Amino acid sequence: MSEHLGSDQREVLIIGGGPAGLSAALVLSRARRRVTVVDSGEPRNATAAHMHGFLSRDGMPPEELRKIGRTEVRGYGGEIVDGAVERTERTADGFAVALRDGTVLRGRRLLVTTGVVDELPDVPGLRERWGREVQMCPYCHGWEVRDQKIVVLATGPMSVHQALLITQWSKDVAFVVAEAPEGADAERLAARGVTVVVDEPARLTVESDRVTGLELAGGETVACDAVFLGPRMVARSGPLTDLGCEMNDDGFVKTDPFGLTSVPGVWAAGNVAKPAGQVITAAADAVWSAGLINMDLIEEEIERELAARS
């Protein structure tokens, strides 16, 4: 790896500058560690106008949270580098992270908080409205569409659960599914007043920049004001796979309860490790990881000092 920056080594490199990465950087910089956050500028919630469920920040635009977080981290001496990571390697004394522009950063410990990419069904209109009227989490966005017409689009084994959950915010819920639910699922949906529509989605209809319905393959249109679905979440795990971290069958990295991966010195926090986590839980997980990283560095420093004395 060639270097545009000097070979000076940070104590902690954090890949990912969202709520998880910035929360960890805040804790570590306040612990007087040399910390660098690498941020690609591609947050998962970029299309969402507001975030919810974060005490004292409810309704805040996600970009504003990131801006405040960056200012706080820098206030304690933390460094933030804008750039995309191309490759991550282990070195004799830690890790090297190569950026797309040729810059190489080096650190003793590595925390990956790169999140996930949401893959949506191939239905025209869904991607364009994602983060607006098309959502996945009612705890984050259910209040904003309360008592409106809501369609839940079946995308996987948790879709019945999602349809049942949505009924807490609206009693006008239609569940669009390719095959009619049977047995207990059918009974539970009926008990909550969910209308089951057996068909395939064709496209989302939009008028005056608002969702008005979901057109089906059979020609019918189900009127709605919002659509909820479960996307396929794909981990942005490149830095972790580069280093040979052990992965679960679902493609997400294996960690201990505090985010330590199978590779010593490498932690993961936020949605890259727990895809269903909300903003506040991703930040909280990263705070735990940051504390353990700091203690891990302290133990290494103790060992080095004891070895020097012997």
Automatic annotation (TrEMBL):
Matches recorded under Gene3D superfamilies: FAD/NAD(P)-binding domain (3.50.50.60)
InterPro entries according to UniProt: FAD/NAD-bd_sf, FAD/NAD-binding_dom, Ferredoxin-NADP_redctase_2
Protein name from the UniProt record: Thioredoxin reductase
Keywords linked to the UniProt accession: Flavoprotein, Oxidoreductase
Domain FAD/NAD(P)-binding: 11-284
UniProt cross-references to PANTHER family, sorted A to Z: THIOREDOXIN REDUCTASE 1-RELATED-RELATED
Catalytic activity: [thioredoxin]-dithiol + NADP(+) = [thioredoxin]-disulfide + NADPH + H(+)
Highest taxon, organism lineage: Bacteria
